[in-house]
Amino acid sequence: MDLYKILSECRLCPRECGVDRLSGETGVCGAGAKARIARADLHFWEEPCISGENGSGAVFFSNCTLRCVYCQNYDVSSKGKGFEKTDEELADCFLELQDKGANNINLVTPTHYIPQLVSALDNAKKRGLNLPVVYNCGGYEKAETLKLLDGYVDVYLPDMKYYSDKYAKRYSGAKDYFKTASEAVSEMYRQVGKWEFDNSGLIKKGVIIRHMLLPGLIFEAKKIVDYLFEKYEDKIWLSLMSQYTIMPGVRGMDELNRNLPKGYYETLVDYCASLGMENVYVQEEGSSDLCYIPEFYGSYQSLSEEGE
């Protein structure tokens, strides 16, 4: 199947713009016919099972299908800053990261480049790529599109940002977010199944769902936790993020133009513990800091380790 044909009437993401990217048209995400990346290097600020000691081979893709007002990487996600790469050049990036000792190939915000990624992964595997592939995304994915990745991805690392359409529309311009993301996670789990780790604690396959706590929305976070625990129990991991940082896009939104109150994040962690959840990564409270941009993620430990 020639996946590039999809780009002539692009409906890869839930926006379903239908634009002809092969002829230079761009939709909501702003992506064109070639993959564009902002950075490819070893990354040490992911969850411990992904970064490990050697680092994750992170490839940060430009553009995004979401429009989150609090995005910590606005220049890359919305302005599209980066460099165009051919499929072969992208394969070269993967192999270079493998040569550097990366634990995995970590594709960050890659949805709008799936045809290019499949081509590049095929190329790289023929040339010796043998690392697990991590699909690191915002959760706003079409289950139908994800099926194109079956057999290519070992670890899915999506966000689950919202439970209510009200907040999804206001903060990310995606009113159907929860329905779409929950169907996407179901497809992700169908493909890779329950998590597996190697002897050094690195994840080899599975699903880790991230949720970054937003000011004033702890009740939303609890609904997401309830949903995931009821549906998947211990078959997936949850990563709770405390690193919310005030960004220029939240100006005029008083509810987001503030830091997380002290103790707010710990309340969510305690809630997870009260449910009996153990497969939870937690950050240090106060991980909100501009020094994590574009590094993104603070330090993590698991909920089970926290009690040791």
Provide an overview of this structure.
This protein is of the alpha/beta class. The chain has helices at residues 48-51, 74-77, 87-99, 114-126, 143-146, 165-172, 177-192, 218-232, 264-275, 303-306, and strands at 35-43, 56-61, 83-85, 105-108, 133-137, 155-158, 196-197, 203-212, 237-241, 280-283, 300-302. Strands 1, 2, 3, 4, 5, 6, 7, 8, 9, 10 and 11 form an eleven-stranded mixed sheet that branches. Strand 8 (203-212), helix 8 and strand 9 (237-241) form a beta-alpha-beta unit. Helix 3 packs across helix 4 (114-126) and helix 8 (218-232) packs parallel to helix 9. It is globular and about 50 Å long. Residues 290-300 have low confidence and may be disordered. Residues 60-193 form the Radical SAM core domain. [4Fe-4S] cluster binds at residues 64, 68, 71.
Briefly characterize the structure.
The protein has helices at 48-51, 74-77, 87-99, 114-126, 143-146, 165-172, 177-192, 218-232, 264-275, 303-306; strands spanning 35-43, 56-61, 83-85, 105-108, 133-137, 155-158, 196-197, 203-212, 237-241, 280-283, 300-302.
Please specify the SSE layout and strand pairing.
Layout: E1 35-43, H1 48-51, E2 56-61, H2 74-77, E3 83-85, H3 87-99, E4 105-108, H4 114-126, E5 133-137, H5 143-146, E6 155-158, H6 165-172, H7 177-192, E7 196-197, E8 203-212, H8 218-232, E9 237-241, H9 264-275, E10 280-283, E11 300-302, H10 303-306
Parallel strand pairs: 2-4, 4-5, 5-6, 6-8, 8-9, 9-10
Antiparallel strand pairs: 1-2, 1-3, 7-8, 10-11
**Shape, please?**
globular
Head-to-tail CA distance between termini: 51 Å
Number of strands: 11
CATH level-four homologous superfamily name: Aldolase class I
Largest β-sheet summary: 11 strands, mixed
Output the helix-strand order.
EHEHEHEHEHEHHEEHEHEEH
CATH architecture classification name: Alpha-Beta Barrel
> On the 0-100 scale, what is the average pLDDT?
92
